[in-house]
Structures are given as C-alpha cells and as structure tokens.
Recover the amino acids of this structure.
C-alpha cells in the first residue's frame, strides 16, 4: 500500500462510529463531528492526516451553532502549516 492509500485508510479510520460532516476547504478531505462539550475534526492533505479534538467549558466557539464555522477555521489554520 502506498503512502496516499494508507493516508486515505487512516482518514476513514478516525471517523469510525461517528457521523462526520464534510468541511469544504483547500485540503483533499476534511470533516467534523460534535461531541458533548466540543468537536472533533479529521483532515487529509496528500499523505498527511490530522485528527483533532477540541473541548473547553463555556467556549463560545464550541457552542453547537458555531461548531461548523469553528471547524472550518481550524482546518484552514492547520492546513496552512502542512506541506503542500
């Protein structure tokens, strides 16, 4: 299995058991799912895969209605620091 196929498998593996909602950004694949007190996101650019869970008590950015926007901003910030 080459690095890209392995990255795709890992990207899907981080989503197991969760309804991951697609995030439209500059990376090949990214999605997020809500948790009780925060959110998790998974993204893939090339053969780099990032999984992140953000939690904070009373954070305005992690309130249910703001999670889609917060997820998109996180992916954009992280992607800017990954090799192309």
């Amino acid at each position: 299995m080459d690095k890209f196929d392995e990255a795709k498998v890992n990207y899907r593996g981080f989503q197991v058991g969760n309804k991951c909602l697609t995030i439209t950004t500059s990376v090949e694949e990214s999605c997020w799912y809500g948790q009780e007190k925060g959110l998790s996101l998974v993204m893939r650019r090339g053969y780099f895969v990032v999984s992140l869970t953000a939690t904070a008590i009373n954070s305005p950015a992690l309130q249910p209605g703001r999670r889609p926007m917060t997820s998109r901003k996180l992916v954009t910030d992280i992607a800017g620091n990954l090799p192309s």
Observations:
- The first helix runs from residue 3 to 13.
- The radius of gyration is 13 Å.
